[in-house]
């Protein structure tokens, strides 16, 4: 599927919401008719289940029993199980787009999705949207439900945040953009409180961000930010990288999956006031633990000491590409 909506429809087909024991069929046909005429029936009077039909309790048992042929695989999400049970109790929800209004968490991983389409607006209760490991390069904020609190776009092809920041969900608390194509310094301007007033967690790891000073100047406006991931960017190779961030963002609790203890904050106190330490250079230490398949140089040295014959010397060049 090319869009999120198409992937969701494929997901619904996988759940079999239109098939026994979900949906509407000969196994529960009278229940739908009973709802239509419920006003004419005295309150508290329940009709018996007609012959040939199944009660809601029996249908739910077929879904929940792990030995049932209609049970979901163990790796399915609790959301999928709950959705099937809701449709058993209220099969009329399958009409139109009413099912999407029940979904609060939507996870579509590695399904070849390329477009976040406006069909997402049907999810009026959606709070969590996980679209990791797809092929999304552009996200139009007008297509995102305003109720969204978590947006995860890890392992995609996002290279520009302009469309995402046009009308972003105001209540968003986590934004995951790790392993994308973000390049500085043009993207830092989109990471301010003007766009993300309630952001608590931000993942920008493993992109191509290079401007540490520019990024920090924008992140300081995010007063609710507590978790930040920047590892894997070129700017993380700058020697005072961690200390500068710790001192510049005093409300930050976790940086690159490492908790910031009071002792560390005290250690780097005052570093934020020395931006001259942030230079356009990086330090990288490479330690070679073991090399296999090459002759030991010590063996050649022993031969040179007492050997009268010709000596063969070998040299090797190790190259690192960045």
UniProtKB/TrEMBL annotation:
Keyword Nuclease assigned: no
SUPFAM superfamilies membership: Outer arm dynein light chain 1 (SSF52075)
Protein keywords: Leucine-rich repeat, Repeat
Entry keyword Thylakoid: no
GO annotation, cellular component aspect: cytoplasm
PANTHER family: LEUCINE-RICH REPEAT-CONTAINING PROTEIN 51, NISCHARIN RELATED
Protein name: LRC43 protein
Name of the encoding gene: Lrrc43
């Amino acid at each position: 599927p090319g869009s999120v909506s198409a992937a969701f429809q494929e997901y619904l087909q996988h759940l079999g919401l239109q098939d026994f024991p979900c949906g509407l069929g000969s196994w529960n046909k009278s229940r739908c008719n009973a709802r239509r005429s419920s006003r004419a029936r005295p309150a508290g009077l329940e009709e018996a289940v007609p012959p040939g039909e199944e009660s809601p309790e029996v249908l739910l048992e077929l879904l929940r029993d792990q030995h049932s042929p209609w049970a979901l695989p163990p790796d399915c999400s609790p959301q999928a199980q709950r959705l099937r049970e809701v449709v058993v109790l209220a099969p009329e929800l399958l009409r139109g787009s009413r099912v999407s209004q029940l979904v609060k968490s939507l996870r579509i991983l590695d399904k070849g999705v390329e477009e976040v389409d406006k069909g997402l607006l049907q999810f009026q209760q959606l709070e969590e949207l996980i679209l990791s490991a797809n092929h999304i390069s552009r996200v139009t904020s007008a297509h995102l439900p305003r109720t969204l609190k978590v947006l995860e776009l890890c392992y995609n092809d996002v290279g520009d945040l302009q469309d995402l920041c046009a009308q972003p969900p105001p209540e968003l608390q986590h934004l995951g953009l790790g392993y994308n194509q973000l390049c500085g310094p043009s993207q830092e301007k989109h990471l301010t409180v003007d766009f993300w007033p309630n952001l608590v967690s931000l993942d920008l790891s493993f992109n191509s961000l290079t401007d540490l000073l520019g990024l920090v100047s924008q992140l300081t406006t995010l007063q609710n930010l507590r978790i930040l991931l920047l590892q894997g960017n070129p700017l993380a190779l700058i020697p005072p990288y961690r200390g500068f961030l710790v001192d510049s963002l005093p409300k930050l609790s976790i940086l690159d999956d490492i908790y910031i203890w009071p002792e560390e904050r005290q250690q780097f106190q005052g570093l934020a006031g020395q931006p001259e330490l942030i230079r356009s250079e990086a330090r990288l230490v490479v330690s070679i633990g073991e090399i296999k398949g090459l002759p030991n140089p010590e063996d050649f040295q022993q031969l040179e000491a007492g050997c009268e014959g010709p000596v063969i010397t070998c040299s090797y060049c190790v190259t690192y590409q960045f």
